[in-house]
Design goal:
The chain is α+β, with helices and mostly antiparallel strands. Helices cover 42% and strands 19% of the residues. The chain has helices spanning 2-55, 59-71, 75-80, 157-167, 175-185; strands at residues 88-92, 99-103, 127-129, 135-136, 141-142, 147-149, 188-193, 202-209, 212-219.
């Protein structure tokens, strides 16, 4: 009986030790699995952040894409760069005084004003960061030819046009709209792609919102010497 008792106790002890070892092994396996899972999640998050960062286009990339799309008269690509709430402003000159329209989309098949077309222009790159060229209505020539943008100054052509419309034309732009225009200009840069003879230049403005750039203005009035 004593031998049987001791034998039974040894079996129980052995079982408990084995169980304990198994539990330790299971915990070790679980810890290793959790560590692998956390590493995997961390890698995915890191990759996602890198991908998002890589997808953000630089100012220069956006200027190039918009200019090429405009030269190709590709409304689809232009529309990708229209801000969903800010829309796009089109400055034009129906007479002696420039005016503008504000719209939510853009299409070459629906020009502004209706009686005119946006005209054609050949791509005149590469893009250069320089002082913007001026057009001489006396000689009917640009002081320099090419595609330029200027990061040393912010554009004010749109707010100036709005103020003239308020003061001279029978158009009243409320204070909130005028303030929005000024806010847009503080985050914008102007670019000019000069044109060859019998072509219309491409004068436009892009605005930064977050890490993205948007086309917020096309200026059809600049370099217009009809009046």
């Amino acid at each position: 009986m004593k031998n049987l008792f001791f034998f039974t106790m040894i079996c129980i002890a052995t079982g408990l030790i084995s169980c304990g070892n198994n539990n330790k092994e299971d915990k070790a396996v679980q810890i290793a699995q959790d560590s692998i899972l956390l590493d995997s999640i961390s890698h995915v998050d890191s990759t996602a952040k890198e991908t998002t960062k890589d997808e953000a286009e630089s100012l220069e990339e956006v200027l190039e894409k918009i200019a090429r799309a405009y030269a190709d008269q590709n409304s689809k690509i232009i529309s990708r760069y229209i801000h969903p709430t800010l829309g796009i402003y089109i400055i034009y000159r129906p007479g002696a005084i420039a005016t503008y329209v504000h719209q939510s989309d853009f299409s070459f098949s629906r020009p502004v004003p209706d009686a005119q077309s946006y005209g054609t222009i050949s791509y005149n790159g590469p893009l250069k960061e320089e002082k913007l060229p001026k057009f001489d209505c006396g000689t009917m020539k640009w002081e320099k030819s090419g595609f330029f943008y200027d990061k040393s100054s912010r554009p004010t052509e749109l707010s100036h046009t709005a103020q003239i419309m308020n003061e001279i034309l029978n158009v009243k732009i409320d204070a909130a709209d005028l303030q929005q225009i000024k806010n847009i200009e503080t985050k914008s840069y102007r670019a000019i792609m000069t044109a060859n003879e019998n072509e219309k230049p491409f004068v436009f403005q892009v605005t930064q919102d977050g890490d993205k750039w948007y086309l917020t203005l096309i200026d059809l009035a600049y370099a217009g010497c009809e009046v």
